[in-house]
Write a structure and sequence with these properties.
heterodimer; A: 385 residues; Peroxisomal Thiolase, Chain A, domain 1; 34% helix; B: mainly beta; 2 domains; 5-stranded antiparallel β-sheet
Chain lengths: 385, 160
């Protein structure tokens, strides 16, 4: 990159199954307020304040055709600049970064906010399918993910126990994350005995309905160094789409992720991610996805996601801890999840991750996903230098 | 029955309801509560520009500062700034039905200073004019209130 872009402050709300006490704007502001206070920044066009905001939310989840409507005042957008990104939070961070690189804005606020509790998950997800051809089948993300899980497990002999280990690890890690919604002491047996949702996915294999927000401030290299002693740099980033129609894909593959990861590693100069990365935060809406995404990210060979979790490499204390925060399984809303992954990496790289700190973390990977069976994949590499 | 060209091109209709449960949040919630319980309009004041916000909210969008808890009760009387006379029924998003017998939609500057968008009782185009003085007509039964602006039926022309 021509110049570096730094993340100077991050904040999250505690994730919660139903924040009926707050509307979207108030919820988003809980996170925004923290980054404003931490940096002492206000909103202004004079180069010394926040001159642009990138918000991340989704109209169908929000129930209106401009889901940024309710946060406009809270992001300083009155007679000012704001853009909405409607997919994953990693893409919002990407867009904020691009605004800084454009030279038009030195300091940009980005916030992802979502109240999944306000809508009907299945009905809303069904609307992600093509309305003329596919919606009539009543498909939702869960049904689609179950097809993918079944195909992946069948093709490579991945077991339900190996998937369950992801749920055990991540909900266990969540016990050390004060923002996590579902910290849990569970066993593989608990997961395998939990209610079947859509075979082979069970209740504890799936993320819970979640409300929450995540905010961060990005700045040009020069401003970032003035704003904080511990800037975290975006070293590489890429996203890639798969085709929409499930019949066009072997669901045991995740080619979009392979490509996004390769590009992000290339930008960041990472050649052996398993060795070079200190931690990864990935978006796993369902337990099997963490295994499959490991393969897509090149952290193990194709079909070896099961072996990787068995080996303990991805546990806290392992060679590459994956989801020290607890990941999406511990409770993040769609859309917010990717930005939460970036925020968690930033906390780790600033040595501010508290009880979930990976000692000496200097290089981290954040992964975001949106759509049916990981249709959109986004990868960001973050570092301290 | 003769086959018309293009008959094979069908349309697909999905009329499934998509329910939502939106939270009013703390600030808007206070207005809703006052309207429901006391037929009263309240809002909060920006500490910087001293203007009343509408609807009530946690920050002043204009000044980009936190608004705080300086609450005031407002008169439900005001002056018509602009209006439109409808010739077709509006959509009621709560019930998914067309609103029968629509009243003109108007922007009304309440005496407290905020701009309310609502209906006028007066339906005769000859009698509609900018500068009309109007007052809210509330739904009488409390059990029918609790829907914010929906707690007011319309604004009635008043003589002063």
């Amino acid at each position: 990159m021509a110049q570096r872009v730094g993340i100077v402050a991050v904040a999250q709300t505690k994730y919660h199954p139903n924040r009926a006490d707050a509307n979207e704007g108030e919820l988003a502001y809980e996170a925004i307020r923290q980054v404003l206070q931490e940096t002492g920044l206000g909103f202004s066009d004079d180069g010394d304040g926040i001159s642009s905001a990138v918000t991340c939310s989704q109209d169908f989840w929000d129930g209106r055709t401009i889901s940024n409507l309710n946060v406009m005042s809270y992001v300083g957008a009155h007679l000012s600049h704001e853009d909405k990104v409607a997919e994953d939070g990693v893409n919002a961070v990407y867009t904020a970064m691009a605004q800084v690189l454009s030279g038009k804005h030195d300091i940009v606020l980005t916030v992802a906010h979502m109240k999944e509790s306000q809508g009907d998950k299945s009905i809303i997800e069904n609307a992600a399918f093509d309305p003329i051809f596919l919606r009539v089948l009543g498909l939702d993300f869960l049904t689609a993910a179950a097809l993918q899980a079944q195909r992946y497990m069948h093709r490579y002999g991945i077991t339900a126990e190996q998937c369950a280990k992801v749920a055990v690890k991540n909900r266990g890690n969540a016990k050390r994350n004060p923002y996590a919604q579902e910290p849990m002491d569970i066993t593989v047996e608990d997961v395998l005995k939990s209610k079947m949702l859509a075979s082979p996915i069970r209740q504890l294999d799936a993320k819970p309905v979640s409300d929450g927000a995540c905010a961060m401030i990005l700045a040009s290299e020069e401003k970032a160094k003035k704003l904080t002693a511990k800037p975290v740099w975006i070293l590489g980033v890429s996203n890639c789409y798969e085709t929409h129609y499930l019949g066009d894909r072997d669901l045991a593959d995740c080619n979009a992720l392979v490509k996004a990861a390769r590009k992000a590693y290339g930008m960041a100069g990472v050649s052996d991610p398993l060795k070079e990365l200190d931690l990864a935060e990935v978006s796993e809406e369902y337990s099997y996805q963490e295994l499959l995404w490991m393969e897509g990210l090149g952290l193990c060979g194709r079909g070896e996601g099961g072996k990787l979790i068995d080996s303990g490499v991805t546990q806290m204390g392992g060679q590459l801890p994956v989801n020290p925060s607890g990941g999406m399984l511990a409770g993040n809303p769609n859309g917010v999840a990717g930005m939460a992954r970036v925020a968690e990496c930033v906390l780790q790289l600033r040595n501010e991750a508290g009880d979930r700190q990976v000692p000496g973390a200097r290089l981290a990977l954040a992964h975001g996903v949106t759509g049916i069976c990981g249709q959109l994949q986004a990868v960001m590499i973050l570092g301290t230098s | 029955m003769t086959e018309k060209p293009g008959q094979e091109l069908l349309t697909v209709e999905i009329a499934r309801p998509r329910p939502y449960r939106w939270s009013t949040g703390k600030y808007l919630g206070r207005l809703y509560k006052e309207a429901m319980e006391n037929k009263r309009l309240v809002t909060n004041r920006c500490p910087k520009c001293k203007e009343l916000l509408w609807p009530p909210q946690a920050v002043c969008g204009r000044c980009k500062v936190e608004a705080g808890e300086d609450w005031v009760a407002m008169s439900d009387k005001g002056t018509v700034i602009q209006y439109t006379y409808l010739v077709f029924p509006l959509w009621d998003p709560h019930y998914g039905e067309k609103l029968a017998n629509p009243h003109p939609t108007a922007t009304i500057k309440l005496d407290g200073g905020v701009y309310m968008v609502h209906f006028l009782e007066e339906k005769d185009p000859q009698k509609l004019k900018e500068g009309m003085r109007v007052q809210a007509v509330w739904k009488e039964k409390q059990e029918e209130r609790g829907r914010g602006l929906g707690d007011i039926l319309y604004f009635r022309t008043i003589e002063e």
